[in-house]
Design a protein that fits this description.
heterodimer; A: mainly alpha; 75% helix; flat; B: alpha+beta; four-stranded mixed sheet; 31% helix
């Protein structure tokens, strides 16, 4: 892969980020405003004078377009503004506190899923159509189909409530509290990666260059490791971009069941509370993460697949 | 011999031992669930129940609550009620101190109130002090904050002046919005002194809040517990798991639908107490059909079998509701509808009679929309009510389920609503906290009920006092039940799980359980 090509590619991709984000911000900004109700609507109606003071404090009394441009001006300086719901925090602080938690759990889950998934997938591919293949893939299929809001309570009941091995939830950065959420989050991804790997591994194993490698008398382990593995995980890599983005930005289900202070709940809670600034902040942040991860996936892809070279594509 | 392998095994085993060991709850530390993350730990921003409960452990107002939720002297050691209930004179305790040792002065209260009422503070709860002289003028910015009805008469004497007598004001003085502010002007409990039973030691948002006993608190000697750890747990099911795993002493609630299981498996831990709240269905009286006929509304009310509703649909100790004001307010007997004494069969016969008297019949079935905000309980109640209406009156009810903000928006607009979920939890233990909602000019009167008699009775109650006030309020409530702008369905209960060794968690209609009264009974397993 030639250096200049990579840099040019990177620059184009990063520049492309700006209009993408602008469209994203604009749609998100007006969409959440179209939703009925506002951040200060509650069971108890506020006295009009207090409501007026609150609106003025958050500039909600200004025309919508003016608020939009005020918001754009604010984001350029990297300021997402104060949260409506969590009044002691700015959105920047909430993201800064929530993201490390979600990224840790999501990152660990993805690492676990990648290792287990590719191993299982490769194994199944090597024993194609055998009993082992069917049973392993059958279990994987279960992993995809059982939703995590079923798996998680069962895990809690077994390992925390009855056995007492692990805490039932909460967060203090200890590994004990990470085990269950990481496993729950990883299970469906393991299954998905295993299926992807198996499929493409079978295809690769039938290709001519593998036959050549075998004909040269290479041991099967080397054939797999040196020649088959890299091309076989290509579909896994392209799946991992958006999947990692989804995992490290937090899952609302996991966070609620295990009481974890990650980013995922902000997205849902923010929308339900009409916490305008929080929703927008998280949307923008999520957008950036996705674009960056897709970019990394592209680079990995080029490294793994000799057929893609960005300098040639230009 | 210390081979690396052995050492490695030892570390692993030690690790496992730590994991496997059952969680140990320390006697002097109590672990409590808090419900959702507090919306703020600042006295003028805190709104939600979680935040208010937390602040009640960190700070104290002129008045506070005892174990049973009754009002007792807080920072004020005593008070006099002057000028026919329009002026309250508080004398602060001699030993009322901030956590840095400074004494709490009358000036600290004045400072705090002035800040709460400054428009820039935008304190959402300042409305609770609406009865204080000049409250709304100051909030609007048309009167100077100095004209607010609070004055430091001496270093330890404080006068609060009201525009009209408001006997419930004492309870408002126990709410964070009326707490004092230290002369540093800061109210962040992590940095500025507090005046309550506990100090805030550590706050990890959405994970844990640690408190420790404040040695300068006036009643610190009577406290048994040294520290409290609160866990904000949004999901009741998650809270239950953590309680069962031994990670909590007290939960904030129990998950809907687990009541029966808990009753047979954790009977000793289950604490279900009457709570000052009523669940009802509201009628939009602007609707041509519903607004037109009192008989129709009465019929719809009588057709609902509340006993079945509380026993089989809700089933967590709720009580059938026949009045707006729930029982449990000292000195007040709710004006229950006379039909509450009847058998359900009698009620249903009467329902049919009234229904026909309103000019409707089974031949042309009435179609009603029953609207509620998304929630398992609300849906089940709505389904049951619709079935009862269908069976007794032949009324077809269409269930409409809306997201919370959409629902409250529709309800306050009153354009599309017909019958809707409603209810109220007392701001303060006084019938007016419920009855005021139905005044013609109340912005929360989503029924658009305009009762001239009711308004008049409420007006006379406002200037009366003592027993005659309560009697007038009761007459107003009886009138309200005749006009039936709402159907009361049931009275709320508070629900907690409390480990048997915990003491000081007493039955109380306000559901206020200050941590300072809690303790651990001897050594229990």
């Amino acid at each position: 892969m030639k250096q200049a090509g990579v840099f040019r590619h990177a620059a184009v991709r990063l520049l492309g980020l700006i209009p993408t984000l602008l469209v994203l911000i604009t749609i998100a900004f007006f969409l959440i405003r179209i939703a009925p109700g506002g951040p200060f609507d509650a069971e108890k109606v506020l006295p009009p004078e207090i409501r007026a003071n609150l609106d003025a404090n958050y500039h909600l009394d200004e025309p919508l377009l003016q608020q939009y441009f005020r918001y754009l001006g604010q984001i350029v300086t990297g300021d997402f503004g104060p949260s409506f719901q969590y009044k002691d925090w700015t959105v920047n602080e909430l993201i800064a506190r929530g993201f490390p938690v979600s990224a840790t759990i999501g990152g660990l889950a993805m690492a676990l899923a990648f290792v287990l998934g590719t191993l299982i997938g490769t194994f199944a591919a090597l024993k194609q159509n055998s009993v082992i293949d069917y049973s392993v893939m059958g279990v994987a299929m279960l992993g995809i189909s059982i939703p995590n809001f079923v798996v998680a309570p069962l895990l809690i009941l077994g390992t925390a409530v009855y056995a007492g091995w692990l805490p039932a939830g909460g967060w203090d950065w200890s590994w004990q509290r990470m085990v269950l959420p990481v496993v729950t989050l990883a299970l469906p991804v393991v299954a998905y990666i295993a299926r992807l790997t198996r499929g493409s591994m079978i295809e690769v194993l039938h290709s001519n260059y593998i036959r050549t490698a075998r004909a040269k008398g290479l041991p099967e382990r080397q054939v797999i490791r040196r020649h088959a593995f890299k091309p076989a995980i290509l579909p896994v890599i392209s799946y991992m971009g958006p999947a990692t983005a989804a995992l490290i930005t937090g899952s609302v289900v996991i966070e609620r069941i295990y009481s974890i202070p990650g980013l995922g709940s902000y997205f849902v809670q923010g929308a339900l509370n009409r916490d305008y600034t929080l929703v927008l902040g998280v949307v923008i942040f999520y957008g950036i993460v996705i674009v960056v991860l897709n970019f990394i996936v592209d680079l990995l892809y080029a490294w793994l697949n000799p057929r893609i070279r960005y300098d040639e594509a230009q | 011999m210390h081979s690396p392998l052995k050492r490695f095994c030892a570390v692993i085993l030690a690790g496992l031992a730590v994991v496997v060991a059952a969680p140990v709850l320390h006697a002097s530390e109590i672990l409590r669930g808090l419900g959702p993350e507090p919306d703020s730990i600042h006295i003028h921003q805190a709104q939600g129940l979680a935040a208010v409960n937390l602040l009640r452990d960190l700070r104290e107002g002129l008045v506070t609550f005892d174990e049973r939720g009754d009002l007792v002297p807080g920072q004020a050691g005593s008070w006099e009620i002057l000028d026919d209930g329009k002026r309250y004179r508080f004398t602060l305790r001699e030993n009322a101190r901030w956590s840095n040792g400074d004494s709490v002065n009358a000036e600290d209260f004045v400072r705090a109130w002035h800040r709460a009422f400054t428009p820039e503070t935008a304190a959402a709860t300042a409305g609770l002090l609406k009865d204080v002289v000049n409250a709304s003028e100051v909030l609007k910015g048309v009167a100077d904050v100095g004209s607010l009805g609070i004055k430091a008469v001496a270093a330890n004497v404080l006068d609060v002046t009201l525009a009209e007598p408001a006997p419930w004001i004492l309870e408002i003085l126990a709410h964070p919005v009326s707490y004092p502010l230290h002369s540093s002007g800061m109210d962040d409990p992590l940095r500025a002194p507090v005046n309550g039973p506990f100090l805030l030691v550590d706050w990890t948002p959405r994970a844990s809040i640690k408190l420790t006993r404040n040695p300068h608190f006036h009643s610190t000697d009577s406290m048994q517990v040294d520290s409290i750890e609160y866990f904000p747990i949004e999901e009741p099911a998650a809270e239950l798991s953590r309680y069962r795993a031994g990670e909590l002493h007290i939960t904030e609630t129990i998950p809907a639908g687990r009541f029966k299981w808990l009753e047979s498996n954790k009977k000793e831990d289950l604490r279900v107490y009457p709570y000052l709240g009523t669940f009802w269905l509201g009628f939009n009286l602007r609707d041509s059909t519903l607004g037109y006929s009192t008989e129709l509304r009465q019929a719809l009310s009588l057709a609902i079998n509340r006993e079945i509703l509380v026993k089989t649909v809700l089933g967590a100790g709720e009580l059938p509701g026949w009045s707006v004001v729930p029982p449990g307010i000292t000195g007040y007997e709710p004006a229950r509808m006379e039909q509450s004494e009847w058998s359900q069969q009698q009620r249903e016969q009467e329902a049919v009679r009234l229904f026909e008297a309103s000019g409707l019949g089974r031949d042309e079935p009435l179609l009603l929309e029953l609207r509620y905000n998304t929630s398992g309980i609300h849906r089940r109640v709505a389904v049951a009510v619709a079935a009862m209406w269908k069976q007794v009156l032949g009324v077809n009810a269409e269930l409409i389920n809306e997201e919370w903000k959409v629902f409250i928006n529709n309800r306050s607009m009153g354009v599309v609503t017909q019958v809707f979920r409603g209810g109220w939890i007392a701001d303060y233990a006084d019938p007016s906290s419920f009855l005021d909602l139905f005044l013609g000019d109340n912005s929360m009167n989503y029924n658009f009920y305009r009762g001239a008699d009711f308004d008049m009775l409420m007006k006379s109650a406002a200037v009366a006092s003592g027993r005659s006030r309560m009697e007038l309020l009761q007459q107003a409530e009886a009138r309200l039940m005749q006009d039936m702008p709402i159907i009361p369905l049931y009275y709320y209960v508070s629900r907690h799980l409390v480990r048997p060794e915990i003491s000081g968690f007493a039955e109380n209609v306000r559901d206020v359980h200050l941590s300072r009264y809690l303790g651990v009974k001897s050594e229990s397993p």
